[in-house]
Specification:
Layout (H helix, E strand, L loop, with lengths): L1 E5 L4 H12 L3 E6 L7 H10 L5 E3 L5 H10 L4 E4 L6 H6 L1 H22 L3 E7 L23 H19 L4 E7 L1 E3 L18 H9 L6 E4 L11 E2 L1 E3 H17 L2 E7 L5 E2 H12 L5 E4 L14 H7 L7 H14 L10
Parallel strand pairs: 1-2, 1-4, 2-3, 4-5, 5-6, 6-11, 7-10, 8-13
Antiparallel strand pairs: 9-12
Helix pairs in contact: 1-2, 1-8, 3-5, 5-6, 7-11, 9-11
The structure holds nicotinamide-adenine-dinucleotide and uridine-5'-diphosphate-4-deoxy-4-fluoro-alpha-D-galactose (UFG).
Uridine-5'-diphosphate-4-deoxy-4-fluoro-alpha-D-galactose binds next to helix 7 and strand 8.
Length: about 350
């Protein structure tokens, strides 16, 4: 299939481009580079030996999208483009709502005009309500989000659902990611966050590399076996493969479908620290710090629907996640390079 990939220079998008190309699909990427570097696509080309057309475009820019759609005949789009920092969304809500909702609506309007009515969306476990019991199934309650970022994902899901309900030609795949970590095993591609990382794994790798003094473990008094928060970490290559499987499913099943992309296993912050130490052979300095506001104790997926219907399940384990994250960080201490951003 010929796939339009928004946000394709970013962390998950670039890894997904590799898997799509390796599965025989072709991709065209558009990204405004607000949180990424085009160098990621050069690495995709190096790894796959295939060309990746790239457009420096804002997905809210209808004219730019029309110019791209004039040149290609797409079968579907994967919509990764979006702002994703939870804390920043609390401080800049309008920027988040404007960016994430407007890009989704503009993209769907342009796609609809062209009769390209197949879309996969990067949703998130953050759409689930906090009062659910674990593990989270696709039927678990949603809403009651604790930050504007989460609401944008919730609202984009609704926008897509309503559009598909009104026009039966649409196929919509709402993919709810759990906690993506890791990097391509080649060491050529990985996560390259700007500034001080918010997420656990990039903070761990930067601490191991000496860029940060120590890791702050946010709370050790949660009702979990070691008192630290538990999450469902998934290797980004497994997550990328989930998109290839979901795209195949979409081609055969019209309508709106929701899938969890997680492993089904929860690990605590200290599990992650110890697994990382084991994978790298280096001690990781950490200190127990107060809980981070808005965090919950435990989040993990029931991925059985994805396994049953998509024929997909995560195959890489915690050791793979830690080894590949470190391989990327240690070979690319400045990520894709500051000058590229
Ligand atoms: P990322 O920041 O690396 O990638 C997102 C990309 O979108 C970036 O390259 C950015 O430049 C681009 N972008 C943002 N707004 C744009 C716009 N208006 N026009 C064009 N490009 C734009 O993040 P990621 O981790 O690869 O996440 C990809 C998607 O998955 C996002 O929608 C994110 O919200 C979602 N998601 C991520 C996680 C996670 O923990 N990484 C978890 C759940 C869901
Ligand atoms: N943590 C620390 N120290 C840090 C960073 C994180 O102890 O420096 C802890 C957190 O308290 C939490 C765990 O590590 O217990 C994971 O935190 P992350 O920030 O890596 O991930 P979250 O689960 O908070 O959120 C992530 C994404 C969201 C997405 C969600 C889906 O950031 O965008 O996963 O489950 F919605």
């Amino acid at each position: 299939m010929n796939v339009f990939v928004t946000g394709g220079t970013g962390y998950i998008g670039s890894h997904t481009c590799v898997e799509l190309l390796e599965a025989g699909h072709s991709v065209v990427v558009a990204d405004n580079l607000v949180n990424s570097s085009p160098e990621s696509l050069r690495r995709v080309e190096k790894l796959t030996g295939k060309a990746v057309p790239f457009y420096n475009a804002d997905i809210r820019d209808r004219d730019a999208l029309n110019r791209i759609f004039d040149q290609y005949s797409f079968d579907c789009a994967i919509h990764f483009a979006g702002l994703k920092a939870v804390g920043e969304s609390v401080e800049q809500p309008l920027r988040y709502y404007r960016n994430n909702l407007d890009s989704t609506m503009t993209l769907m309007e342009v796609m609809g005009d062209r009769g390209v009515k197949n879309i996969l969306f990067s949703s998130s476990a953050t759409v689930y309500s906090q009062d659910n019991t674990m593990p989270l199934t696709e039927e678990s309650r949603t809403g009651g989000c604790t930050n504007p970022y989460g609401w944008t994902k919730f609202m984009c899901e609704e926008i897509m659902r309503s559009t598909a309900k009104a026009d039966g030609e649409w196929s919509v795949m709402l993919l709810r990611y759990f906690n993506p970590v890791g990097a391509h095993p080649s060491g050529l591609m990985g996560e390259d966050p700007r500034g001080i990382p918010n997420n656990l794994m990039p903070f761990i790798t930067q601490t191991a590399a000496g860029r940060r003094d120590h890791l702050n473990v946010f709370g050790n008094d949660y009702p979990t076996p070691d008192g630290t928060g538990v999450r469902d970490y998934i290797h980004v290559v497994d997550l990328a493969k989930g998109h290839v499987a979901a795209m195949q499913y979409m081609a055969e099943h019209r309508g709106t479908h929701v899938f969890n992309l997680g492993t089904g296993t929860g690990y605590s912050v200290l599990d992650m620290v110890h697994a990382f130490e084991k994978a790298t052979g280096k001690p990781l300095p950490y200190k127990i710090a107060p809980r981070r506001p808005g965090d919950v104790a435990v989040v993990y997926a029931d991925p059985s629907k994805s396994e049953k219907l998509l024929g997909w399940k995560a195959e890489l384990d915690l050791e793979d996640m830690c080894r590949d994250s470190w391989n990327w960080q240690s070979h690319n201490p400045n990520g894709y390079g500051e000058e590229e951003k």
